[in-house]
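Journal club prep — side note

Before the paper discussion, L.F. wants everyone to see what a predicted structure for a comparable chain looks like in token form. Sequence:
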Amino acid sequence: MWEKTATQKSLQQLREQAVHIFGPAAGYQACGDIGEGRMEDPASLCTMAGNLFVSGLLSGKKVVITAGPTREALDPVRYISNHSSGKMGYALAQAAVAAGATTVLISGPVQLTPPERVKTIAVESASDMLYAGLDEASGADIFIAAAAVADYRPANIAEQKIKKNDENMCIQLIKNPDIVATIAALPKRPFTVGFAAETENLEHYATQKLHKKNLDLVIANDVSDTEIGFNSDDNRVLLVQTGSSKALPIMNKNLLAKKLIEHIASLLNTPPAIRSQH
């Protein structure tokens, strides 16, 4: 039946209309014949259908993304953290794998399901995230630091739960390692992207971060804005790179992630000398 003139004529019309055709498979058929005409294996059909949605912008590239908060322990039951939901980082991981990249997601504690086809590494503290980041940065083409990493951690972690005794309690804090700056300083560094969550002077602080940490791009957002603050499904960002900046309007984080991956892919293929013109 597959080789019949009427079947092939219909297939040709579908191809001219840019319809995607999967199969057929070859083998034993219900009528008893052997040859082309069988339905493809369902798992193969799912794979082929999924590949239609892969843009190929980052095919052959390795992308490492950090997401979510970190937790810095005070004692066995308490920690210092922040309100990051991890939604932006997880959306970026989904967009990166959809663009064809081998994608690694290094995630702090969040209530999100890891994207399919993404290698996910669960971490707790900033130090944990740094070590995982250094391991995965080897051979990476792009490193996107979307996590909200705690700037400081307790100098000492109590072995037992701290009891409530005095009216006041002092906790000495020490500075955490700067993950994105450490990655950007590697001898064979990936294209390094940082996030800047600010409450004022967005472009000023994002530009400072870009130069101070030797980054290729900073994605800045105003977390004091109730429309786009922590835990929101939407975001509005300012893209800051050497010599230029570009504001993107408020949109769903999944759509924004797709646009950010497209922008990063375009910069990755642009000589550094002319990136500022984009």
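L.F.'s comment for the group: Residues 253-268 form the longest helix (16 residues). Keep this in mind when we get to the figures.
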